[in-house]
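Run log, item B.
One chain of 122 residues. Sequence copied directly from the ordering sheet:
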Amino acid sequence: MKRCLIADKSEIIRKVARHYLEQAQVEVLEADSADAALAVIREKGTDAVILDWRLPGKTTIEFLSALRFGDKAKRPLVVYATTENDPADLSRAFAAGADSYLIKPFDQNSFMESMANAGVAA
């Protein structure tokens, strides 16, 4: 079973994403800040992270840099979740280490399609 961390400041987004992922037999962890997300990754390990574009505590680039320079053997796949379809912003996220992206708000079909494309859920 894959393990995915939902790192988002919105409790509603975390709840909805959790519901979708658990239906796909993915174990879900949650964090509402960058520091909490990094701690979960260090302590519990994850296969993937759904990363909110404006997570409290660190910028997206700072978070991805901390992740990139951590233990490379345990580095999870990162799905960058944003409300903006801004090519420059997406480019910066990919350059910093994001592997895929997801546009919010999402419905179940678009969410699961993004997760399948990223290899998080079937």
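Observations after the first pass:
- The mean pLDDT is 92.
- The beta strands are 3-7, 27-31, 48-52, 77-82, 100-103.
Flagged for discussion on Thursday.
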